[in-house]
Amino acid sequence: TADTVDDLDGFNDLLESHQNYSMSIPVIITEYGCENKNFPTIDGFEGQRNFLQVDALYSPDYEDYFAGGIVFEYSVEKTEVDEETNVTFPYQQHAPNNWGLGYFRPSDCDDIDTTCIYTPYPEFDTLAEKYAAADGSGVPDLNSFNPGKLEVTECPSNFPALDTFTWESTSIDDLDCVGPNYVFVCPNLPTECLPPFAQPPPAPSPPPTTAPTIAATKPPGWVPTAEIVPDDATSGAFSVDTSALCCVMGIVGMLLFGL
To answer: What integer pLDDT is reported at residue 45 of this predicted model?
Structure first.
């Protein structure tokens, strides 16, 4: 662990490298904040980082080349820690792959059925205090940055160029755009996995199979006398007043055929 900025060997090596690169734009350091079990225990939590990197980044030496950085990381990756260590949640014991500044509780929360509440580790407050104390006025932006050169920076000679790599995707056909939101879907993806707007249209409904009905005009004062009544409520058998039914059929015939 480092107790002073001078002890930050990795950061100092990074500074020396960028001094030699003469970058044409400001550089942001991503994912800084190494963890180590030898960091102090605070409020029962082991390995709480001191974030001396903030002191370095916002010092004149670093501000000539760097425009700040991003700490790794906001919350613990619970699944990864649980799979690779025997430390129990919320990980008061040091876990080698716990870079979180805090954790979400309860342990089974999903923000669907159970609301997740962010709980910072003590090192979260340490980082906040470091940021609050940093001046930051010397951090360059595109307007104030004085580049070492105006042309595009070339890759250092000890780094291979990207076009020397063989990418697996090179031999795969481009994906087709399947929807108005420009969402790309892999070929041969099962239909049920497609987003809603990419689903195939539903099959047309089959034509109706019932015969059309012909409506007849009822003569004034006409009252139907046909009556269907159940013979036996338990058996479901029905009988029809046939005399009334014949009368009704005769009237319908006259109306339809002009008889």
So the answer is: 96
